[in-house]
Amino acid sequence: MNAELSLRLPPETASVSTLLDALESFADAHDIPMATMARLNILADELAANVAMHARGATHFEATTRYADGTLTFSIADDGAPFDPLAQASPDTDAPMEDRDIGGLGIHLVREMATSCAYHHDGSRNILTLTLAARAE
Q: Which residues fall within 8 angstroms of residue 111, CB to CB, at 6 or more apart?
């Protein structure tokens, strides 16, 4: 089965809910395992919220989800200033809370929960692509 969902939304916090609602409908329509969609929802929430709150100069973001051959691919693209979240240092999760820097846990979560992550800038857009193996857990 091959299925795709594409959305173009303003970089606002309200768009995060719109995206998550659409992902839920997509999962229901295509019998995507609940555990896989739960992971995707966490990751999509984090990435869309980051665009809404931090993408300097962005006028929109595009989220595309593809489901084929047991794999979910999620891409989020924005037209803001170039920024590679995967190039950021991983937080020291072993350090005591009071010694940790603020931020950085979201992208750490993305790196840990996704099967793979890749970033590129195509000249006008930041594009972050994740894959998840669709499996019941």
A: 86, 90, 117
